[in-house]
Design brief:
This protein is α+β, with helices and mostly antiparallel strands. It is built from 8 helices and 6 strands. Strands 1, 2, 3, 4, 5 and 6 form a 6-stranded antiparallel β-sheet that branches.
Length: 280
């Protein structure tokens, strides 16, 4: 039989693998064939393909600034920086325009106005009322009657300084130490004229309120107890305010007088029911 016959089961060479014949030809093989029939077995495992694997899918396309070339990215970054600087300058100029008069606005007020007017004019104030630029302390002295019937006038006691010392370094200062004396003085000033005469029906109430606070403070003051021997009775009190301007910073050319000014109120007689809470 020809070795190149397609239907032959003969080997095509000493090293060539045997090619299985189709089922029809295997059934028609002669009985005296030299090679026995090979029983059918499991299908051969498929040989892995030696072809190159498919490449990985490309990454997602870049968007935004990242999609630009480096040259354009630098340009965008510079533009954003210029816009941010312009916004900061505008906010700063607007703040100086609406803020109360201060050292910066006195020095550069023309530049601020040139920036604001006319496009960015503001018709409202940021602070109402204006923040204080003065130090105001409330002081009091008392007329104390001793056991011998003589009246002793004490020196001035700075009640605001005592509150300041109690607040300084205190993580939880009381509302009384922070606001009681200050609010009492503001109440008095709002209900009296420059001559200390009451204006309106609340004038007498503000006097009584301020007087009661000073008597209670003197009652608790150890210095007053020591000066009167702890045996006197407060008959009258006098209150005054000491006002001094806050000095400007060293780099400012503004000239401000630091000489304090005083506003003394008339002597107030302490009623007996209030005097019982005073010095004994």
């Amino acid at each position: 039989m020809d070795a190149y016959d397609e239907g032959s089961n003969a080997r095509h060479g000493p090293d060539a693998p045997r090619r299985p014949a189709p089922p029809a030809q295997r059934g028609a093989a002669p009985a005296d064939s030299a090679e026995p029939d090979v029983p059918p077995g499991p299908e051969p495992e498929p040989i892995a393909s030696l072809a190159q694997p498919e490449p990985y899918p490309p990454g997602e396309p870049r968007t935004g600034i990242a999609a630009l070339s480096p040259r354009y990215q630098v340009g965008v970054a510079l533009a954003l920086a210029v816009v941010a600087i312009g916004v900061c300058v505008h906010i700063g100029m607007t703040f100086l325009h609406v803020a109360p008069a201060n050292t910066v606005t006195r020095e550069h007020g023309t530049a601020v106005d040139d920036w604001i007017y006319p496009e960015f004019e503001q018709n409202w104030k940021l602070f109402a009322p204006n923040p204080l630029q003065q130090n105001i302390s409330i002081q009091v002295r008392a007329g104390v009657r001793g056991p011998d019937g003589m009246t002793l006038t004490t020196g001035w006691y700075d009640l605001s300084a005592e509150d300041g010392r109690a607040i300084d370094g205190n993580l939880l200062p009381s509302h009384t130490q922070q606001n009681e004396l200050r609010r009492a003085w503001d109440f008095f000033v709002a209900t009296h004229d420059s001559e200390n005469r009451p204006v309106g029906l609340r004038g007498a109430l503000s006097e009584s309120y301020l007087r009661r606070i000073t008597v209670l403070r003197l009652d608790r003051d150890d210095a007053v107890r020591a000066a009167t021997g702890s045996s006197g009775v407060i008959e009258r009190v006098q209150v005054r305010s000491r006002t001094s301007n806050v000095p400007p910073p060293e780099w400012s050319r503004e000239k401000v007088s630091t000489t304090p000014s005083y506003r003394e109120l008339p002597w107030w007689r302490v009623p007996q029911d209030e005097a019982r809470g005073g010095m004994r």
